[in-house]
């Protein structure tokens, strides 16, 4: 049954998501419900301090420490807690490992559940309806659009995050990195490679 929305506050918000966020921020600030400086600090923290570099540290250590790798694949939470990578949106992590036989990719089909303590702020495309719907139906096509071509004889496994469980993909370690330090290896691991929509970066010669 049609109804008139002109009397509802949300009818005054612009349709573009970025503009809607800015409009909501302005309204909440004017009402004294949020502090813009505190909001900026939270965003800066997740972008620069609790960003993908945390996940990269985990991946690089798994590449170089067999005992750590085994523990992370079995029960990662105690070690993540020790490393200080435990927090809201990352209480229950599952680590999945790319291999020559399997390529993993992560999505949240219901909303945008994402491991903030390890990867920082989720990218816009991860939250989009198109990615959330298509990567489940046609993962190879979506990965190809990101520049990742998965061979026909290699399985693609899609992991659907939930409010209870979030996933981190460990990309395959690139060839020719045997002599690199953990710090050097961390630089080869990107946010997208830990979602599964990219591969680890090849080392420069």
Give a written overview of the molecule.
- This protein is mainly alpha-helical and 205 residues long.
- It is built from 11 helices and 4 strands.
- The chain has helices at 17-30, 36-49, 52-64, 66-74, 77-82, 116-119, 124-127, 129-137, 139-145, 182-186, 191-195, and strands at residues 93-97, 102-107, 155-160, 166-170.
- The longest helix is centred in the N-terminal third of the chain and has 14 residues, at 17-30.
- The chain is globular, with a radius of gyration of 20 Å.
Layout: helices, strands, pairs:
Blueprint: H1 17-30, H2 36-49, H3 52-64, H4 66-74, H5 77-82, E1 93-97, E2 102-107, H6 116-119, H7 124-127, H8 129-137, H9 139-145, E3 155-160, E4 166-170, H10 182-186, H11 191-195
Parallel strand pairs: 1-4, 2-3
Helix pairs in contact: 3-4, 8-9
Task: Sum up the structure in keywords.
205 residues; mainly alpha; Nitrile Hydratase, Chain A; two-stranded parallel sheet; 11 helices; globular
Q: Compute the number of structural domains.
A: 2
Strand arrangement in the largest pleated sheet: 1-4
Could you name the CATH homologous superfamily of the largest domain? Nitrile hydratase alpha /Thiocyanate hydrolase gamma
Structural class: mainly alpha
Taking the sheet with the most strands, its summary is: 2 strands, parallel
Strand content: 5-15%
CATH architectural designation of the largest domain: Alpha-Beta Complex
Identify low-pLDDT runs.
1-14
SSE run: HHHHHEEHHHHEEHH
> If you consult CATH, what is the topology of the largest domain?
Nitrile Hydratase, Chain A
Mean pLDDT: 85
SS element count, helices:
11
